[in-house]
From TrEMBL:
Its main location: secreted. Residues 22-319 form the Plant heme peroxidase family profile domain. This is Peroxidase. Removal of H(2)O(2), oxidation of toxic reductants, biosynthesis and degradation of lignin, suberization, auxin catabolism, response to environmental stresses such as wounding, pathogen attack and oxidative stress. These functions might be dependent on each isozyme/isoform in each plant tissue. Belongs to the peroxidase family. Classical plant (class III) peroxidase subfamily. Its EC number is 1.11.1.7. Substrate binds at residue 160. It comes from Gossypium raimondii. GO terms for biological process: hydrogen peroxide catabolic process; response to oxidative stress. It catalyses: 2 a phenolic donor + H2O2 = 2 a phenolic radical donor + 2 H2O. Disulfide bonds join 32-112, 65-70, 118-315, 197-229. InterPro entries: Haem_peroxidase, Haem_peroxidase_sf, Peroxidase_pln, Peroxidases_heam-ligand_BS, Secretory_peroxidase. Residues 1-19 form the signal peptide.
Length: 329
């Protein structure tokens, strides 16, 4: 993939920028007119190859934006002197489909070299994942730049655990100016995709150290989960996050009302008085859910911190850092 390291060094000098321009729709309409089309096209191909990859790519926006803003930091591979976010507790053995992002980036570099940031790719691809799964479609604001670094620690300090309860989730989202309604709507992203037994063993067998299952799980559903994830199972085995894991719809909220949420952090949104009204509304009114979800995704996509940025040419590596390439010679 790399030609010669000195090419990368030159590119770095050209692309370095500090200013965070305000985001706007159609940011690439002059500099890369086909950008949005290219992203959707690669996402369609990914969907045909592996339907779950839509969910996996959509999740990346959340894990990127909550940690130092939407800056593509999540996508950086570790280097000799940096342990990045991919190693963080919520990400390792869990985040997937990075190869789809690579494919999008390669197609964009072919069409418009050094123009579309990896951070913007994540926001575009998340939107497309939802639209291609039968959910809403919306216009996104663009113009983000990519970080020069990433930190496992920063991700570990922020990203929520599947054990989280509604109160801690409300407080976490409030730190990002996201409301209780945003929290519930954004959790509706779990309308698509899967999770590992690893994420629910505690609630099946030892909720809050009680040695017992989470009483909020509907008994027949618990039977199913016990079969999927018996004690001693390979905890990489996965199950669907709602009853229709390939369709972006409000089934997720109907499942919560019925005690059939997969994750503890999801079911707690119905158990808790503060979040329950939103779960009820979204379970009955899919349009309300879609509207609130789009609002939440736009707000989450605005999270930015002042820091140096660039347009990476490879989403996994900072420009002009051929160190690992040299080491592999
Ligand atoms: C509210 C707090 C949240 C918690 C505690 C949480 C937690 C989790 C966990 C534990 C998994 C399964 C991981 C595994 O077992 O490997 C998961 C999957 C997923 N999450 Fe979240 N999540 C939250 C919010 C969000 C948000 C805001 C989004 C996107 C907008 C999102 C999108 C997804 C998707 C699409 C999947 C399935 C991915 C796949 O199939 O590969 N989550 N989440
Ligand atoms: C939340 O809003 C406050 C007040 O508008 C602002 O000062 C703060 O920077 C915002 N926080 C985030 C993470 O956007
Ligand atoms: C359940 O959790 C508690 C507290 O974390 C722990 O002390 C106990 O050993 C666990 N029990 C089992 C059966 O894993
Ligand atoms: C899941 O698989 C990964 C390798 O893909 C392995 O390193 C890890 O230990 C497995 N995790 C569990 C909980 O079995």
């Amino acid at each position: 993939m790399y030609r010669f390291p000195w090419v990368l060094l030159l590119v770095a000098a050209v692309n370095m920028a500090v200013a965070a321009e305000p985001l706007r729709p159609g940011f690439y309409s002059e500099t890369c007119p086909p950008a949005e089309f290219i992203v959707r096209d690669v996402m369609k191909k990914a969907m045909i190859r592996e339907p779950r990859s839509l969910a996996s790519v959509m999740r990346l926006q959340f894990h990127d934006c909550f940690v130092n803003g939407c800056d593509g930091s999540l996508l950086l591979d570790d280097t000799a002197d940096m342990v990045g976010e991919k190693q963080a507790l919520s990400n390792i053995n869990s985040l997937r489909s990075f190869e789809v992002v690579d494919e999008i980036k390669e197609a964009l570099e072919d069409a418009c070299p050094s123009t579309v940031s990896c951070a913007d790719i994540l926001v575009l691809a998340a939107r497309d994942a939802v639209a291609l799964s039968g959910g809403p479609d919306w216009e996104v604001r663009l113009g983000r730049t990519d970080s020069l670094t990433a930190s496992q620690q920063d991700s570990d300090n922020i990203m929520p655990s599947p054990r989280a309860d509604a109160t801690s989730l409300i407080n976490l989202f409030a730190q990002f100016n996201l409301s209780v309604k945003d929290l519930v709507a954004l959790s509706g992203s779990h309308s698509i995709g899967k999770a590992r037994c690893f994420s629910i063993m505690f609630r099946l067998y030892n909720q809050s150290g009680s040695g017992k299952p989470d009483p909020a799980i509907e008994p027949e559903f618990r039977e199913k989960l016990n079969q999927l994830c018996p004690l001693g199972v390979d905890e990489n085995v996965t199950g669907p996050l709602d009853a229709t894991p390939r369709v972006f719809d409000n089934q997720f909220f109907k499942d919560l009302v019925g005690g059939r949420g997969f994750l503890n952090s999801d079911q707690t949104l119905f158990t808790s008085r503060r979040t329950r009204p939103y779960v009820r509304v979204f379970s009955k009114d899919q349009d309300e859910f879609f509207k609130a979800f789009v609002e939440g995704m736009l707000k989450m996509g605005e999270l930015q911190v002042e820091q140096p940025g660039e347009i990476r040419t490879n989403c996994r590596v900072v420009n002009g850092r051929p160190v690992d390439v040299l080491m592999s010679y």
